[in-house]
Each structure stands twice: as C-alpha cells, then as structure tokens.
Amino acid sequence: MGGRPRGRLRVHLGVAPGVGKTYAMLSQARRARERGEDVVVGLVETHGRAATARLLDGLEVLPLRTLPYRGTTFTELDVDAVIARAPALVLIDELAHTNVPGSRNAKRWQDVAEILEAGIDVVSAVGVQHVASLNDEVERITGVRQRETVPDEVLRRADRIELVDLPPETLRRRLAHGELYPADQVDAALTGYFRLGNLTALRELAQRWLAADSRLGPDRDERLGPDRDGRVDGERPGLPGTRSWEARERVVVALTGGPEGDTLVRRAARIAARGKNANVDLLAVHVTNADGPPDGDPATLVRQRALVETLGGTYHQVVGEDVPRALLEFARGVHATQLVLGASRRRWPFARGVGATTSALSGPIDVHIVPHEATGLGRGLARPGPVLTRTRRLSGWALALLGMPLLAAVLVPLGLSLPSELLLFLLLVVAAAMAGGMWPALTAAVFAFGLLNWFFTPPVRTLTVARPENVLALAIFVLVAVMVSTVVDLAARRSREAARSRADAEVLSTLAGHVLRGESALPSLLARTRETFGLSAVTLLERSDESGEWRVVATSGGMPATSPGSADTDIAVDDRLVLAARGRPLEANERKVLEAFGAQAAVALRQQRLREVADRAGPLAEVDRMRTALLAAVGHDLRTPLASARAAVESLRSTDVTWTEEDRGELLATADESLIKLNRLVSNLLDMSRLQAGALGVRLEPVAIEDVLPHAVDDLGPLRDRLETDIPPGLPEISADPALLERVLVNLITNAVRHNPGGEPVRVTAGSHGGDVEIRVIDRGPGIPAEAHERVFLPFQRLGDRDNHAGVGLGLALSRGLTEAMGGTLMPQDTPGGGLTMTISLRRAS
C-alpha cells in the first residue's frame, strides 16, 4: 500500500430517488470486470429491486461490519476489510449515509476518503437532494428536509461526476407500476415527493449545480435537455399551489418606450449571454402606468419588441399605478434573478426615483441601473397627474381634519378682518380639493364654516350671526368650496378615464401585434391576459353539448376556475365558451378589454383544433404517400430478384439441357445473389416499418468496430471484393447495437459500391474524435449536390441513381433511422476529389 497513488472517485448523481443511480454504478462495475479489472462490492443498497439485485450476480461482495446499537444490530461498510482486500475498484453506495454511533467514522463519505487515501478507486452514488448547498432548495421544492448531506467540497473533489436522470413522466410511470416502492406507498409518493413539478425542478436544480463542472459525463447534453418551458415550480405536498425557485437565470429589462430602450435591451442580452451555459431567459416588460405617462411612444415600443424577439427574448406588458411595484411583481411572477432599468431621463433634482425605489424593494433580485445617452436630458419637473391616488386622498383628509384647526389656532390671535379670514380658509379648502377631491373638500368646507362662525363671526363663540352680510359671506364661502371640489373631482375622474382608455388602447395594440405575429397560441394568449390584468389565474371554459357540464380547455396561472360561478370575473365569449378570471373582480372598463382577449382566445382555440386535425391528417397522408410509392416500387423491385432466382433454379432443374459445372456454378451464383438482394429488400422494408411504428428494439452495449465490420463484409456477398478497410488498432469501444450497426454498414457499403466507378474500391475508415467514434464509408462516384444532402435520406428516393433498377430507395433512410435509434448521427459529406462520404458518429462506451 505504501507509495500507492491516491484512488480516484467517480460519483453517480441521481436527480431523484429511483432514477437508477445504483443500477448505473453496478453496470459500470460489470463493464470494468469484463475488461479484466479487479472489482469488488463494498456496500450496495438494492432496496429490494430485482433488476438491481441481478447485477450483483458474479461480483465479489465483501462482508459488512456488524455493530450493536440500542439493542439492535446494524451493518455498516467495513473499511478495514476493503483496505485489506486492496482491489483496483470498490463500489460504495449511499455516499451521504450517516453511520451508526460507534463506527469508525461518523459519515460514509469519510469512510470513502480513507479508502481513496489507500490508493483504491471508488465508485459511489448520491442523490441531488443530499448535496449540502442544495438542501434548502430541495426542501422548498419538495417540502421534505433531508438530514443526511454530503459537503459540496467532497463532490467537487471527485474525478468524475455523472448525472443519472430519467424524464419525470417515466419515473412516475415506474413508480406507478410498483418498481420503486410497495403498492401501499405509491399513491402517497405520486401526490407528494414525486409530483411532476417536483421532479422537473429537481432535474433543473441538478443541471444548474453541475453546469460549471467539467467532470460531467459526455452524455450531459442528452440527459439534461430542457423540458423547459420557462418557469419551474416545485410543488409542496399538502399545500394548495406551488412554491417557486430560481432553477435558471432570468433577466428582465424594463422598457418605457423611450429612446434608451435599445441600449437597455442590448445590455440585458449581453448579461443573459454571459450565462449561456446556465440557460438564461431574457424578458422585456413595459408598464403602462395608470396615471397615463406622457413618455412611451407606441411605435418605439413595437420596434423595441421586435429587437427583443430577434435576440431570443419575449415581450410582456402590464398595467400598474406604481411603476416600481408593478415591475417587481412581474419580475417575481416570472422568477427573475436580474432586473435591468435605465437611468432617469429627467434632470436633477427632478429625476424620479423609480430605480432607487425598485432597488430598495427588490429583495433577492439583482437590479442594474444602466446609464444611456438620454440620461438627464429630459424635462425638468414632471407635471403631477390629476388622478386621485390613495396618497393624495389621505393628504386631502389631513388638510381638512388637521389643517383647519391649525389655521384657526393661528388666526385667532392675529385679529384679522373677516374677509381676510374667509379667503385664507377658502384657500385651504381649495388645497384640500386639489389634493383629495370632493369629499375631503366638502368636509373641509363644513368644518371651516363652523370654525369661522364660532371664532371669527360676531358674536364670537356662538353660532349666532349678527350681521346679514356675514351670513351671505359664509354661504358664498360654502358654495364656492362645493363648486371647486366638484370641478376638481370631475377633472380627476375624466383624467382617470382618459388614462385607462390609453392603457386599454396600448393593451389592445399589443394584442393586435401578438395576433399579427402568429403568436395566438392559446396558452400564450391566456398567460398574456393574466399578466396584463394582474390576475392569479385565467381559464377558458367550454360547456359540453351533451351533459351541459363545464370543462377546462386551457388555463394559465394557479388554481383554475372550474365553472363560471367559481371565478371572480367571467366573460361569455359565445354560447359554449367562457373566459373565467380569478384574482380580483375587474372593473367595467377592464371587462371590455377582457372581452377582446376572450374573442381572440376563441379564435386561438379554433386555430389550435384545426392544427390538431391537420396534424392528424398529416401522418395519414404520409402513410398513403408511402403506400402508393411502395406499391409502385415493390411491383418491380421484388419481382426482379425473385424472377432471376426462379429462372436460375428452373434452368438447373431442366432435363432438356446438359449443364457444365461452370454453367451450374454461374446459375447458382445468380440465384444466390438474387436471393440476397430479395432478403435485404424485405429486411429493409420490415425495419423501416418498425422504425416508423416506434417498435424497433434497440439494445445498446459496448462494441468494438473490428468485431462488427467482418460480419458486415460477409453479408455483402460478391460485393466484398470491391471493399477496402482501414481500421486503426486501439479504437475505443462504442455504445451500439451490433446487429443494427451491421445492417447500417451493409446498406451504406452497398449503396457506395453501386455508385462507385468500376475498378475503384469503396474505403471504410474509422477514428476517434472527443467523446465520439466516427466510421466513414467513402466512394469516388458522382456525389450529390450539397442542397440534396438531406433529401437522400427520405424513403423511396433514388437521387443520383443511373437507372431505376436499384431498389426502392430505403437503404439510406433506414440507415439514418437505425443510427439515430442508437443515439448517433449519419451525415453525408463531399469526398475530396469527388464522390460521397457517409459518416456514422456514435458515442464512446463509458
């Protein structure tokens, strides 16, 4: 053991329980043993799964250490036994496991560290839920606290980390079939930890953690492909609704319709591009202020929206009185991690504090304030909008209830004349009207009337008015106050209506642009409706003609309304469709705009159903086309080799002619070659049928090219003499189905020989490139134009054939289908100097 280098650690990281990390670990061990490596099993948890337990057959399993604890006997990994055995590779499952008190180490990962120091390679497995830094995220997603964790540093020091993954639907199907847990636990698991949202969130959490780790296996892209539709929600068992988490970066850029928008969009796109490997989303949002902001050119917004979509982002529009809060509500709603704002265009000291307010309230969202050419070049003091907000109404009531007594307290000692006092009180009433509208002003007028009568109208401190002109003055005072209050309130209402009309017009123009761009897909439209009106859920309901019951056609947001009566607002689109909204009751003018969205939702539904009909008709038309082509082609191509073979056999059976041995050999060769062609044609037809039906069985295993190629050459028959192979020694094994790979090679070589000029051999070469192994079939024929490279893979194509007797044109189509079924690619390339090179690329076996 002395002087032996430190062992290497390879970890299989599972995205959820039951994805097969122990199975993957055992499969790797069996492959290593087949290569002659000394492999033992230190500890493996099969959890009663038969398929996993079968992989233990034939592997050496070391005895476990027995430990008593609280009257019960437990078994743990025997570190001393592993070190004494000193294998080349040992399997140790459940890296996050906590050992029984009294064990050599408190944690199993500490046992593994000792074994690695002894120079023994270790393969282990752990679930993403046990990674220490992700523990809180996993609890927020699933509602389950994992008490056993592995420090991130332990995993980061591993020599290789491989993600073990299954699509959430597949994992749930395995669970439902009883492959993971006993039958009495399946229902609880499906509605709890194994909810679809939870599994999707865990997959993306694992992807995000491994995104910057170069030790991830070569199958990363395949296993981590996005399901990914934007937001990821982890579902909490027992709780209605979901809890959101930042599975991926999302950058939101705020647009005002001003000239700075282009700069902001490009800056946000650069921020998003820095996180390209983390799958960053770019979203642009325009807040239509209920105060009716003067800035915000619709034409500029349309141009900026086009720029956002060109850069791969999405455009959104919301309505809100408080711009910072509306921005943050949208950002939190889409789970944004970064928010990009432009510096104010107004000159100091009148610059509005949208950026400062947003930054103060942003919480975990990073806020970027971006300077631009228009910074500080706008107008000075912004003219206050006339809409009576909550703050203004509170100010009006404060002036009415507090300002009047204070003014009276100030004027009593001064002893001014009654006209002067009336004017001062009238000024305060007008101020209350300007600030708070009619009711604070009316209250102020009545309060002022009482104070003037009591303190300032002789005789003072009584409600009696001695002089008639004072009565007239007080009456005119109240009348003027009422008139001013009414005018101010009416102006505020008209201003609000105008602002709302402008906001509605902008929303409708956005909807029109949404439709004109062909984005009228129903889910997208409902999501846009929910964002625009700030609702929790928007649902399109349809009533059944037979039963009269309502069913959900499409929904966006949280818990959908299942009937018009369960919604806060419902809009009847037609006799059968209703748009139901939950979250808050909508005002009358908002309902009018919602009706436009409902009408467009009905159009989107009809388009969606027409597309579904077209999609169903498309495969039928393709099947009919293929059937027609097959009948036309097979009529000749099956009869030709069959007729040749039959003629040769009948000639041999004939007693009228005496055949020489040479003639008999030639006739037998003709029959043999014809039957080979016939067999190949029928096999291709059957395999193409299985491929299109998705019923072709594929069994991948480590395969050496030098083992498959001789069998393919033998299948060529007489064509083998026109083949030249150049396979370098020492090529790594590939992951493939030997029988299917042999079929692919036979088809490609046969096709190459058919087009190769006489006397020129077809060459077959191979080489390793990164994580793939490439096999090339090279001919010196006429080749094909670059624009036709993809057409040669369509069934029943004979592109470039010199005659019409070369088969039904399935060889290349079948070859690509079989290659892709094995997880590889088949691509045509021009041969330098003329001809065509077909390149098969398959993954290296792990």
Automatic annotation (TrEMBL):
<keyword id="KW-0067">ATP-binding</keyword>
<dbReference type="InterPro" id="IPR004358">
    <property type="entry name" value="Sig_transdc_His_kin-like_C"/>
</dbReference>
<dbReference type="InterPro" id="IPR003594">
    <property type="entry name" value="HATPase_dom"/>
</dbReference>
<protein>
    <recommendedName>
        <fullName>histidine kinase</fullName>
        <ecNumber>2.7.13.3</ecNumber>
    </recommendedName>
</protein>
<dbReference type="InterPro" id="IPR036890">
    <property type="entry name" value="HATPase_C_sf"/>
</dbReference>
<feature type="domain" description="Histidine kinase">
    <location>
        <begin position="633"/>
        <end position="846"/>
    </location>
</feature>
<keyword id="KW-0902">Two-component regulatory system</keyword>
<dbReference type="InterPro" id="IPR025201">
    <property type="entry name" value="KdpD_TM"/>
</dbReference>
<keyword id="KW-0597">Phosphoprotein</keyword>
<feature type="transmembrane region" description="Helical">
    <location>
        <begin position="394"/>
        <end position="416"/>
    </location>
</feature>
<dbReference type="InterPro" id="IPR036097">
    <property type="entry name" value="HisK_dim/P_sf"/>
</dbReference>
<dbReference type="Pfam" id="PF13493">
    <property type="entry name" value="DUF4118"/>
</dbReference>
<dbReference type="Pfam" id="PF00582">
    <property type="entry name" value="Usp"/>
</dbReference>
<dbReference type="Pfam" id="PF00512">
    <property type="entry name" value="HisKA"/>
</dbReference>
<keyword id="KW-0812">Transmembrane</keyword>
<dbReference type="InterPro" id="IPR005467">
    <property type="entry name" value="His_kinase_dom"/>
</dbReference>
<dbReference type="InterPro" id="IPR006016">
    <property type="entry name" value="UspA"/>
</dbReference>
<dbReference type="Pfam" id="PF02702">
    <property type="entry name" value="KdpD"/>
</dbReference>
<dbReference type="GO" id="GO:0016301">
    <property type="term" value="F:kinase activity"/>
</dbReference>
<dbReference type="InterPro" id="IPR014729">
    <property type="entry name" value="Rossmann-like_a/b/a_fold"/>
</dbReference>
<dbReference type="InterPro" id="IPR003852">
    <property type="entry name" value="Sig_transdc_His_kinase_KdpD_N"/>
</dbReference>
<feature type="region of interest" description="Disordered">
    <location>
        <begin position="216"/>
        <end position="241"/>
    </location>
</feature>
<dbReference type="InterPro" id="IPR038318">
    <property type="entry name" value="KdpD_sf"/>
</dbReference>
<dbReference type="Pfam" id="PF02518">
    <property type="entry name" value="HATPase_c"/>
</dbReference>
<keyword id="KW-0547">Nucleotide-binding</keyword>
<dbReference type="InterPro" id="IPR052023">
    <property type="entry name" value="Histidine_kinase_KdpD"/>
</dbReference>
<feature type="compositionally biased region" description="Basic and acidic residues">
    <location>
        <begin position="216"/>
        <end position="236"/>
    </location>
</feature>
<keyword id="KW-0808">Transferase</keyword>
<keyword id="KW-0418">Kinase</keyword>
<keyword id="KW-1133">Transmembrane helix</keyword>
<dbReference type="InterPro" id="IPR003661">
    <property type="entry name" value="HisK_dim/P_dom"/>
</dbReference>
<keyword id="KW-0472">Membrane</keyword>
<feature type="transmembrane region" description="Helical">
    <location>
        <begin position="423"/>
        <end position="451"/>
    </location>
</feature>
<dbReference type="InterPro" id="IPR027417">
    <property type="entry name" value="P-loop_NTPase"/>
</dbReference>
<feature type="transmembrane region" description="Helical">
    <location>
        <begin position="471"/>
        <end position="492"/>
    </location>
</feature>
